[in-house]
Amino acid sequence: MDLVDFKMTKDGLVLVIKHYESIQVILDQIVSKLSQMKGFFAAGDKIMLMVERHEMHSHDIPRIVSLLREYGIDVAQILIGDSFQNDLSSMSRMKLLEERETKSGTKVVKKHVRSGQAVVHSGDIVVLGNVHAGAELLAGGSIVVFGNVKGTLRAGLNEGDSAIIAALSMQPTLIQISGYTLREVSNYEEPVIVQVKNGKIVVEKAKA
Fold first, then answer.
1. Could you tell me the pTM of the whole model?
2. How far apart (Å, rounded) are the C-alpha atoms in residues 121 and 188?
């Protein structure tokens, strides 16, 4: 069954990924599709990514984005909706922020991440600023925010539940570490560390 397809719209090219059971099947189909389209893309080309049931498959997005980058294709926006529509004006869009990686592979964002923006990286993410409501961070590893968090944080999507989240203060919309999710988080005005302990997400004040 073909779960991956490129769609041309008036707003640009969209990689559409239908609801799936196995991420490996999706990755294999992307590679197969790109092989069939050899010569179509030039290094640095930008596309949009639409994953049906985005919430259910959000933990796989860093792997998909990383695979596309290996082929020289950058994801400029993530489209959010239940199914693909050729009229993209009615769909929510998350603009991906591009920041350079350090030699260690950590992605450092030296600005606020505003509503409607997303940072997706297969390793660790460090933000030197705030994460506003309506913004989203998706990290394969850990997340550190030197600022206030009001958006959505998803960590450990590759590394698992050993990943941590740290912030100077937070009132996040949602926190996810690996397969664990916390939807209701108290208001913390001081530095906190979030990690998985005994099968659940625990938010603790950072020790001086």
1. 0.79
2. 26
